[in-house]
Design a protein that fits this description.
Helix content: 25-40%
Bound molecules: fructose -6-phosphate
Number of strands: 25
Structural class: alpha/beta
Distance between the termini: 12 Å
Oligomer: single chain
Number of helices: 16
Low-confidence stretches: none
Largest sheet: 8 strands, antiparallel
Radius of gyration: 26 Å
Strand content: 15-25%
């Protein structure tokens, strides 16, 4: 995945683009580049490495070698890109923007052009010279070729998009049209920002939120013609004009700043109480009960709920399933989207498919949702990004209100997804007559207590996580065990540990341990026992005793009103007392902190783990 931004207006374009890229770096950070239109010519600068390297190369090349990027005066428009390489190695030649043979057309691409080899071969036969190995460069040459036939930038871009297979968001800068950018989108996000006498386009609104809160989402299959005075949209296949719907962004630019925090991940762990509270508040009706808007009739009619998701969102789904079973007595299953979509799923009348995706752009989850829609089954999307693709394909949408998640490791989006799933389960339980009014009030009160309890959990966990992160920083393997609702949290803890600390880790249902994985344990295996979220803590305690016989050092996450783990574990973090089914939501906090502390002690940058950029599983 990559981040793209374009700007046209009265500001120092270079500064706007660099600022925008810094807010998109979470989408890709192995190389970055920009192209500026000075009114007379287009100047391009590209660099391998993160944004600091691009700033440095701008300083060296454009500012007389003073090594610090100073704004190039006079630029009226520009495009920029932060790359996560998919086609072609991480080299300056493969860094975007890419240009046609003549240096007239410059483009940036997010996505994948599946037929790029065939397009390249055809263009080479026609005499085009390529300077990169990317799937993006053919786009610039195709536009060049169409321009010789139609001499109309819009039409040349439109005809080009009709030749592209795959999924993409593109922004085009033309040397001959300094007052226009053209953008196109198919299945990749693209959003316009409207200012006064200036217009922005980017993969995510975070790129321009510091300048404007007025946005327009470019629809799937649409083209956008962008000028300083605004945007017009049209359908790429027909060239027919499309309506422009202006929306206001709720969050402020500070939400995408680290402030005094060293990392976004640490900040976002602290954001969780507020984000959890905001998500519940947005789904609370006038009577004080949970309200699910358009999704309510869809979900209320379900005889079975099938949850589809990937990664952390899948783990939230696992927790949600337990709540649907436990409170609403509603059958539910949770499926890994990339598996389910190819598994010939047997859907039945009465099924409702719920797709969970923080970004709303993960391809496997989108494909699973579409598959459900094509089977005639009602669908609901749970996402953190309003206007994301998943919203277009679902019958109803429920939004988490986590604010933009910039850290690559999902944290606050996991907990806000659990907030929403808990609200759904509580609402359906009430609808289905499973909760009397007293139980209903008690459950709602417990859920609403979570933000404060979560903040307290951060305070309680931090010193222990810091100490263990130090002592365990050289461990070669982490093992997590849990039962029932603790298991999704154990899985999530193990995922965080792999993802940001690069330490192999595994999470197991504690009762399964004796069926194989216990062979892995030794005195060198830190083991984390999530001793909440289960009615059988005693059985988990026996499992911990088995772990101890192998000499492993055990950290238990236990409820403050349950001292049993003190007897078995070497260290215990006590989370505040709460309904046993909800306590795992608190228990994830120490696991997030432990992964972060371990990564930091290993000298790693938790915001930019290797081999990962945020979201969008590419097929
Ligand atoms: C883990 C993480 C990933 C995502 C997964 C799904 O920290 O971020 O596992 O959870 O890629 O992403 P979404 O929820 O955007 O579909």
């Amino acid at each position: 995945m990559c981040g793209i931004i374009g700007y046209i207006g009265h500001r120092q374009t270079q500064d706007v683009l660099l600022e925008g890229l810094s807010r998109l770096e979470y989408r890709g950070y192995d190389s970055a580049g920009l192209a500026l239109h000075t009114g007379a010519e287009v100047m391009t600068q590209r660099a391998v490495g993160n944004l600091a390297m691009l700033r440095r190369s701008i300083g060296e090349e454009w500012s007389g070698g003073d090594m610090v990027a100073t704004a190039t005066a006079g630029a009226t428009a520009g495009i920029a890109h932060t790359r996560w390489a998919t086609h072609g190695g991480v080299t300056e030649e493969n860094t975007h923007p890419h240009a046609d043979c003549d240096g007239r057309i410059h483009i940036v691409l997010n996505g994948i052009i599946e037929n790029h080899s065939a397009l390249r071969a055809g263009l080479e036969l026609e005499g085009c010279t390529f300077t990169s190995d990317t799937d993006a460069e053919p786009i610039a040459h195709l536009i060049e070729r169409h321009l010789t036939a139609v001499d109309d930038l819009y039409e040349a871009v439109r005809r080009t998009t009709l030749e592209l297979e795959g999924h993409y968001a593109i922004v085009v800068l033309d040397r001959e049209h300094p007052q226009t950018l053209i953008a196109a989108r198919k299945e990749c996000p693209l959003v316009i920002g409207l200012g006064t006498g200036e217009t922005f386009v980017a993969s995510a609104a975070a790129a321009f939120r510091a300048f404007t809160d007025r946005t327009v989402v470019v629809g799937d299959g649409q083209l956008a013609v962008i000028t300083p005075s605004g945007v017009s949209l049209s359908e790429a296949s027909t060239a027919l004009s499309m309506p422009v719907r202006v929306q206001r962004i709720g969050w402020v630019a500070d939400d995408v700043e680290k402030g005094s925090y060293a990392t976004f991940m640490r900040k976002e762990i602290d954001d969780q109480p507020a984000a959890f509270g905001a998500t519940l508040a947005h789904h609370t009706g006038e009577s004080g009960g949970f309200a699910l808007g358009d999704a309510e009739p869809v979900l209320a009619a379900a005889r079975r709920i099938v949850i589809v998701a990937c990664g952390t969102s899948y783990h939230a789904g696992l927790l949600g399933r337990h709540l649907l079973h436990g409170w609403a007595h509603l059958p539910a299953s949770v499926e890994i989207a990339s598996e389910w979509r190819y598994s010939e799923p047997a859907l039945e009348r009465g099924d409702v498919v719920v797709a969970i995706s923080q970004s709303g752009e993960t391809r496997d989850t989108l494909a699973a949702l579409r598959l459900a829609g094509e089977s005639g089954v009602p669908t609901v999307a749970i996402t953190n990004v309003e206007g994301s693709q998943i919203c277009e394909h679902a019958d109803a949408v429920l939004l988490t209100h986590a604010g933009p998640e910039i850290g690559v490791a999902a944290t606050k989006t996991f907990t806000t997804q659990t907030a929403l799933l808990a609200a759904i389960a509580a609402r359906l339980a009430a609808n289905r007559g499973m909760l009397n009014p007293r139980m209903r009030r008690n459950l709602a009160a417990q859920l609403r207590a979570i933000p404060d309890l979560m903040a307290e959990t951060v305070i309680r966990s931090e010193p222990v996580a810091a100490d263990l992160g130090e002592r365990w920083s050289q461990a070669g393997f982490f093992f997590y065990i849990a039962r029932n609702l603790g298991l999704p949290v154990a899985l999530e803890g193990a995922l965080k540990m792999k993802e940001i600390s690069y330490v192999p880790s595994d999470a197991y249902a504690a009762g399964e341990m004796k069926h194989g994985p216990i062979a892995l344990l030794s005195a060198a295996t830190p083991t984390i026992a999530v001793a909440v979220g289960t009615p059988v803590v005693d059985k988990l305690a026996s499992n911990v005793a088995e772990v101890k016989t192998r000499g492993a050092h055990v950290l238990a996450i236990a409820s403050e009103d349950d001292p049993r783990m003190l007897e078995y574990a070497d260290e215990t973090i006590f989370v505040p007392a709460l309904d046993w089914r909800l306590q795992p939501i608190l228990a994830v906090v120490p696991l997030q902190l432990l992964a972060l502390e371990t990564a930091e002690r290993r000298g790693l940058n938790v915001d930019q783990p290797r081999n990962l950029a945020k979201t969008v599983t590419v097929e």
